[in-house]
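Chapter summary example.
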Amino acid sequence: MMRALWTAATGMLAQQLNVDTIANNLANVNTAGFKKSRADFQDLLYQMVREAGTPTTLGAEIPVGMQVGLGVRPVAIQKMFSMGMIQETENPLDFVIEGDGFFQILQPDGSIAYTRNGAFKRDSTGRMVTSDGYPLEPEVVLPVEATVVSVAEDGTVSVTLPGVVTPEEVGSITLAKFINPAGLENMGKNLYRATVASGDPVTGTPASEGFGAIGQGFLEMSNVKVVEEMVDMIIAQRAYEVNSRAIKTADDMLGEANNLKR
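The structure predicted for these 262 residues follows.
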């Protein structure tokens, strides 16, 4: 009877993590470049009561064994890197990657972080930076007097200066991609860090060599689908309830056994 209590408890803990994951997805439904997560589970060890194939006294074999499961455990929370909805912003410093790839962001410690959020700004020196002030890598500096900023699909950044008809190229955007993007580590602030699981970054020019093209004046929104998340939350809530009911049932059975009289 105690086995049922502990088994159902693992189910409640697992569904609690599931709801936590869904809640984070819903909280970031309007976060540009956000990628939803999915909690994965696996069953625990099994207690062998009778092994299949055990010979009997009559020379026959037991065709089906007896194994009792001991519950469930979370095994992974996986990022889903499907493309989010593309929204037009008409902001010349908003960019979307139409396909694979990440923008490279230089961190204060000199390391490189990666993001799908292309909402860039211009700092006091003209550099293209994130909302937290981290510059794009390689660095792109826009002249203060520039009147028009244009970015081609291949990441070439050009500006138009006063009195000059021909646009002047001032830099280019380089993208990075990974063999296993799900292995990237979340850093918060819409940033990811490379890990051993993700593999080393492969850099390249947008719109070539398997990299997505750059779209100016657009943003990739979150890939969270509210209806799907709400359905998943209902399923997780019901699973939590039935596991709590299993605990109550096991407790009632223990109570009945405890109250038996001769």
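To summarize the output: The longest strand covers residues 72-79.
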